[in-house]
Amino acid sequence: MRHFLLTLIFAAFALPGFSREYKVHGPQGGLAMEVTLPDDFDRDNDKCPMVILMHGIFSSKNIVPIPALAKALAKEGIASICFDFGGHWKSEGKMELMTVGKEIEDALAMWEYAKSLPYVTKIGLLGHSQGGVVASMAAGILASEGESPDALVLIAPGSVIQDACKGGKFFGAEFNPADPPEYVKCFGMMRLGREYILTTQELDIYGTAKEYTGPVRLIHGSKDSIVPMSCSRKYVESYTQEAELIVVEGENHMITRKLKRVVQHAVSFFVSQLK
User: Fold this and answer.
1) Which residues does 182 contact at the CB level (< 8 Å), separation at least 6?
2) Burial category of 42 from C-beta neighbours within 10 Å (exposed 0-12, middle 13-18, buried 19 and up)
3) CA–CA separation, 45 vs 126, rounded Å?
4) I need a labelling partner for 8 at 20 to 30 A (CA). Which of 38, 55, 63, 259 fits?
């Protein structure tokens, strides 16, 4: 796992297209983002739905499955926004200052930006891993305020982060959950801050998420060794509306074995709900 993480780190920094001109800001500052439009799309005359794509903890908008999702959505006539959460890679801020609450604020800022685009008709949310927790809670918050997303996809939503913080073990780091240090090092290198550990223990993940009553699809790999299937099943149970869970046989948490199948399940759902 550590070798794989190092590969992702070097790949993220090597990718082109980096810009310091931030259009959207969150609690930690500017958010690096990329809008992907359908082929031959005319911003001035055409209209289309849009999906906001959210990556997992320590990850990036340039790491699987986000780029593949953006490309596949565009082929179906659906635009997308992918972005790095505050403190991650190309966005401003520090990793050790990241919290789920701040990431929710990032997501809501992206929501406001997507709403401001004159060519956007409907908006969906998608989150992978911790991004799934963020997407689910952002959808619940928006719904409680009368602004419900039109569709929601959660890929291996990592609500297990709460149990990890309460149990004092997180990706190789061990700590006193009642009094953690200023930060701990996950995988021996990625800093996770005290504020993250303490606030994650208090999150009302499912209670907030269930405020959203729109269409939901959950996608989870059968070989996921990081986020247990029980997390997705609990999401299904918590929603008052019908929420569909698709199990992808043989897929892992990083979505590196059955990527095309996972993307197909996500994109087909958005096509059915947004177009």
Assistant:
1) 96, 193, 194
2) exposed
3) 26
4) 38
Q: For residues 141 and 147, what is the distance between their CA atoms, to the nearest angstrom?
A: 9
- Interval 33-85: pLDDT, tens: 999 999 999 999 999 999 999 999 999 999 999 999 999 999 999 999 999 99
pTM for the full model? 0.93
Q: Which of 85, 107, 91, 72 is nearest to 266 (CA)?
A: 72
pLDDT tens, position by position, 90-149: 999 999 999 999 999 999 999 999 999 999 999 999 999 999 999 999 999 999 999 999
User: DSSP secondary structure string, 4-17?
Assistant: HHHHHHHHHHH-S-
Asked whether the CA dihedral 151, 157, 163, 166 is positive or negative, the reply is negative
Say what the pLDDT of residue 198 is: 98
Q: Residues 6 or more apart from 186 whose CB is under 8 A from it?
A: 58, 170, 171, 172, 173, 192
Instruction: For 142-174, write each residue's pLDDT tens digit.
Output: 999 999 999 999 999 999 999 999 999 999 999
Eight-state DSSP code of residue 183: E
Q: Which domains does the chain have, with CATH numbers?
A: 22-158+205-274 (3.40.50.1820)
- At 249, the amino acid letter reads E
